[in-house]
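Supplementary Methods, section 5.1.

A reviewer requested that the exact input to the structure prediction be made available. We therefore reproduce it here, unchanged from the version used in the analyses.
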Amino acid sequence: MRRTLRRAALPMAGAAVLVLLPVAAASAVTPAAAEPCVQKVTVVNNSGYVLNWQPSSHTGEVSAPTESYPVNQSRTIDLSTTGWAEGTEVRPLVHAVAGTDELGNRYVSYCDNGQSATYTATGTTLDPAVTLLG
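The structure derived from this sequence is encoded token-by-token as follows.
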């Protein structure tokens, strides 16, 4: 009977620990949830079209777009110029000139840390793709 009580007590103790861990983990994630946490975002144009892009937040807000630029060039936006709070999740919204818009495949978080994230734009005007590198 002693073994039965120990086994019954262990799941109870384990459940108590599991209940506490999510609370501690949630506070450790603040302010940034998406990884990596960066200050600058770059989009390299490896596509078959001219493009411009703008950062788009998880809530759908956008900041000012870059000028349009051709294949084999890139443009970088420093997120500290957007007015968004640190921890805001963003990804590029790429507009293919004479084509369609495409969002980056993954979010990054804004942190005022000097780090950069690079996306590559590929595809065609009607079938663009925007992929976070690394």
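DSSP finds one helix and nine strands in the chain. These observations are discussed further in the main text.
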